[in-house]
TrEMBL record:
InterPro entries documented for this protein: Kazal_dom, Kazal_dom_sf
Signal peptide: 1-20
Organism: Glossina fuscipes
The protein's name in its UniProt record: Vasotab
Span of domain Kazal-like: 21-79
Top-level taxonomic group: Eukaryota
Alphabetized SUPFAM superfamilies for the sequence: Kazal-type serine protease inhibitors
Swiss-Prot/TrEMBL keywords: Signal
Amino acid sequence: MFSTPVICFLLLICSLYTTAAMGNAGCSQVCTREYEPVCGTLKSGDKLMHCSFPNKCLLNVRKCKHHEDWSMKPGVCFKDTKNCRTILTD
């Protein structure tokens, strides 16, 4: 009926369409409510931002969704940056 190259081409088109439609859907957004805080640090230009995240999973979701290069260490930050509340709810 269909030749192998035609079937392969159709599968390729379908997979590309699915990937494009997903956007940031590839980022896991399901995290547990465990409270194991981590201090996230992000260098933005010449400034460092420090934000305490409730757990590693939530920091990783932020990194993935916004393509940011956060580093982390266990525990809450000594002092959070002023706009952390916005970062944590975005």
